[in-house]
Amino acid sequence: MYREVTKDFLKTIPLFSGLSEEEFGALEKIVKLRTFGKGEILHYEKDRSDELYYLCQGLIKVYKVDRFDNEVFMYNLFKETLISEITDFERIGCFANAEFVTDSEVLAIDLAGFREIYMQSPALMLQLLREFAKKSKMLQCIINREIVFDGTAKVAFMLINDLSSFNRLKKQEIAYMLNIQPETLSRILNKLTRNGLIAVEGGDTVIADEAALREIFE
């Protein structure tokens, strides 16, 4: 379902920070708000789109499927994040599947109209560059996780960088995100606990020795 948006709403979106009244007026004509339910698919790998997507509220899981039809987790996208991959500033490419983990709200932006605005707006171009930098950092994390890190390093990295998600998610979900087996995750956590690097307090994992935990992946 699409809903029209107002300039006042667009002014609350970080991507549009610093734009002029005239630019907000132009954006208002090419942007709509779309709602999605948990489990819905925004796009599949290799899809093409003439709209740019920006996540206002919610959570998206980005994943690929291997030749054995197994899901390979890539990363999560949180609110106030550009979803779409702009491959060459002309087309929207979808290099992976994007599935909503929670009920979410997404801005759908007409790409052709948006191009006319950002090509004339240094403020908007700067915000886009920041979004590209975030995507680059995500790619670096994927490379480390899948090529450089072993199972223990993957777990240690998540504990240091995203402890809140680690404590919120089920162990099976964590194993899926790290692309390791649940049994492997259990063995790693038991080892880290025995070595005094982590502990469990009130049902949550806490870091007992941050320096030693960092040494595993740095």
Q: Which descriptors would you attach to this protein?
A:
218 residues, 4-stranded antiparallel sheet, alpha+beta, 14 strands, 43% helix, 2 domains, Jelly Rolls, Arc Repressor Mutant, subunit A
Q: Do you know the CATH topology of the largest domain?
A: Jelly Rolls
The total of helices stands at 9
Give, in spatial order, the strands making up the sheet with the most strands. Answer: 1-2-12-5-8
CATH class descriptor name of the largest domain: Mainly Beta
Main structural class: alpha+beta
Number of strands: 14
Helix content: 40-55%
Summarize model confidence as the mean pLDDT: 90
Structure description:
This protein has 218 residues and is an alpha+beta fold. The chain folds into two domains: 2-134, Sandwich (Jelly Rolls); 149-217, Orthogonal Bundle (Arc Repressor Mutant, subunit A), CATH 1.10.10. 43% of the residues lie in helices and 28% in strands. It is built from nine helices and 14 strands. The protein has helices at residues 7-10, 21-28, 111-118, 122-148, 151-161, 163-168, 171-178, 182-194, 210-217; strands at residues 2-4, 31-36, 41-43, 48-49, 51-57, 59-65, 71-78, 81-82, 85-86, 92-93, 97-100, 104-110, 198-201, 204-207. The relative contact order is 0.13. The mean pLDDT is 90.
